[in-house]
Amino acid sequence: MVLLIAGASIFSFPYWQTLIFDGQVEDIKEQFLDDIKKASDPESPYASLYAYLKAENERLFAEGQADLVDALSYQQPAVDLSAYGLKNNCIGFIALPTIGIELPLYLGASTENMEKGAVHLTNTSYPIGGENTNCVIAAHRGAMTPMFRNIHKIKLGDRITVTNFRETLTYKAVEIKIIKPSQSDEILIQPGRDLLTLSSCNPLGRNYQRYLLFCERVA
């Protein structure tokens, strides 16, 4: 009986872990939405944040992203969001309806951030959309909580949304690639396009490839 109970506890642990994680995500989202209630106010700090990120996106494109090396190697965020009133370095949320996932989006692919949700890769476009941008977002695929575990179930044409401090951007999946970590040229900005690229480890539970899902802005 003791062994039976112990076995049941082990197998049910991921389920309870996911429930706890989902509750934490809801709390973070509630805090985020509360923080950005005045985002439309031209005198709010978010107006200057948007202007700054837009300028950074333009700089990244003009300079050719020379510092981009590996799709999961950028741990240090280049912007302190707390200076603009956004707590926990959370710049928004990403939703993948096809696989029933919504995650907070953090700046910088640090170990700590990747345990909490999805991350924006430094030296790629910030998640505000616009021509000549490619925002690369990564998340774990083999962690205890689902995150990007089932990213391979997203089909071409499926929608993905990113909600930042200003608006919700809608993208559709347009291409899938599996690359080596060193193939950083695959995640560069593509002139004239407004892209979102989702990146995770491949194969499932391993780390010697990258699974890329390219998405193009539709709204």
Compact description:
This protein is α+β, with helices and mostly antiparallel strands. It has helices at 2-35, 45-63, 111-116; strands at residues 90-96, 101-107, 118-120, 133-138, 159-163, 168-179, 194-202, 209-217.
**Residue ranges: pLDDT <50 for 5 or more in a row?**
3-11
Shape field: globular
Question: How many structurally independent domains?
Answer: 1
Radius of gyration from the CA trace? 18 Å
What does this structure look like?
The chain is built from three helices and eight strands, in the order ααββαββββββ. The protein has 219 residues and is α+β, with helices and mostly antiparallel strands. The protein has a single domain (2-217), classed as Sortase, Chain: A (Beta Barrel). It has an eight-stranded mixed barrel.
Please write out the topology.
Blueprint: H1 2-35, H2 45-63, E1 90-96, E2 101-107, H3 111-116, E3 118-120, E4 133-138, E5 159-163, E6 168-179, E7 194-202, E8 209-217
Parallel strand pairs: 2-3, 4-7
Antiparallel strand pairs: 1-2, 1-5, 3-4, 5-6, 6-8, 7-8
Describe the structure using short key phrases.
single chain; about 220 residues; alpha+beta; Sortase, Chain: A; globular
